[in-house]
Amino acid sequence: MSNAVIVGSQWGDEGKAKVIDYLTKRSDIIIRFQGGANAGHTVIAEGQKFVFHMVPSGIMYKDKICIIANGVVFDAEQFLKEIDELKTQGISIDNRLFISETAHLVLPYHKAQDNAAENLMGTGKIGTTGRGIGPAYADKAARNGIRVADLVDWDLFTKKFEANLEQKKRLIESVYQSELSLDKDAILNHYKSIRNRLLPFITDTGYYLFKESRKGKKLLFEGAQGTFLDIDHGTYPFVTSSSTVSGCAASGCGIGPSSIDYVIGIVKTYTTRVGNGPFPTELNDSIGKQLQDEGGEFGATTGRPRRCGWFDSVMIRKAVQVNGLNRFALTKLDVLNKLDEIKICTHYEIDGKKVDQFPSRISMLEKAVPVYESMEGWNCDISECKIFNDLPSKAHVYIKRIQELCYNVPVLIVSIGPDRNQTIEVNPL
Ligand code: IMP
């Protein structure tokens, strides 16, 4: 296998960590390139459950290098919590975990701003994770963010922090009509105390990746969130604040796009969404509840229940387009085991007209009526299947139809349960 990027093809939570875990075995270096502690990757290995928000889940493999690259907004608190947890579990991170010096820091005032902004929005809330992601990316774009490298020069960090905190106080009090009750000295003292733990991880990760890739090391770019949460291509404004599509793997890591050979789209075999915003195939009935229960559809970061619905081929066609997907990893097929009937959305109807393309305007998406094809469910347990041919023929029909509706992208793997072993390889790389 050569270098590969993995992206979520829907609204995140497609079961990415499971696929990343599977592909990590074939890679040398695993890189997070966007997002922050809003992501929540759950890995189940030998019956033990790990949830990662900052550290790439590839860290579970003791011989792999993991990178938190420049496109990420770095949450130091969460990072330290995770490395402490890893140490408690006996997993060494020495010399195999690096943070980009140009990644931006998520600071306590970002979280306060995130929550104050949401509170002010009332019914128009985005439904953010409250992790300060939007404000951290906004500061980056406004050119007053604080970068990881700024921690090296303590006086500079202090100066920037004090200036920003003052600005945020004014913003939160006057615009968001809320209070910013953060203790400047306590925060600075805290960052001074954790700084020495962070400094050894900081490096020019782009240069490192470039050199290692030229030596033949295999890179795996780990996307967070999903295509429809992308700041440009998602269901704006109900999106996250980073670019979540495959193209960001290059700019978010500091190496060029010619380094990417495979673009793997994680496609859940039904659809889920956390947070607000339109969701054409949403099921507000007992089947939606069944998918939620069978699929354990509760957010890994916030614990919020995920909204559930049928598979939407209109979305996946757009995901193929914007990411240039050349492989699908189909996940959570086993969640459909108990259904007598399974539906696939083939297209929408908007104002009485057939629409095959995902609308860019939210007002149109809100009016989209999904048009379904119905098929019989397989109604049996598939979680013990080892090879593709072990799957019931009705599951073959379902997978084939998904592919037909979505440009016949080849299926790399099908995931049929949460454990590492419950993964069927269809077309190995
Ligand atoms: P933010 O990224 O916290 O600003 O939240 C913006 C939107 O993205 C909200 O709807 C969140 O629920 C959603 N979101 C952010 N991260 C994830 C994720 O990892 N999975 C699914 N949804 C996410």
Please tell me about this protein's structure.
There is one protein chain. The protein contains 12 helices and 20 strands. The chain is an alpha/beta fold and 429 residues long. A 10-stranded mixed sheet has the order 9-7-5-2-10-1-11-15-19-20, sandwiched between helices. It is globular. The model has no long low-confidence stretch (mean pLDDT 95). The chain binds inosinic acid (IMP). Inosinic acid is lined by residues 11-13, 38-40, 126-129, 131, 133-134, 224-225, 229, 238, 240-241, 274-275.
What's the structural blueprint in terms of helices and strands?
Layout: E1 4-8, H1 16-24, E2 29-32, E3 41-45, E4 48-52, E5 65-68, E6 73-74, H2 76-88, E7 97-100, E8 104-105, H3 108-121, H4 133-142, H5 154-174, H6 184-198, E9 202-203, H7 205-214, E10 219-222, H8 248-251, E11 262-268, E12 271-273, H9 286-294, E13 307-309, E14 311-312, H10 313-323, E15 327-331, E16 341-350, E17 353-355, H11 362-367, E18 369-376, H12 393-405, E19 411-415, E20 423-425
Parallel strand pairs: 1-10, 1-11, 2-5, 2-10, 5-7, 6-8, 7-9, 11-15, 14-16, 15-19
Antiparallel strand pairs: 3-4, 12-13, 16-17, 16-18, 19-20
Bound molecules: inosinic acid.
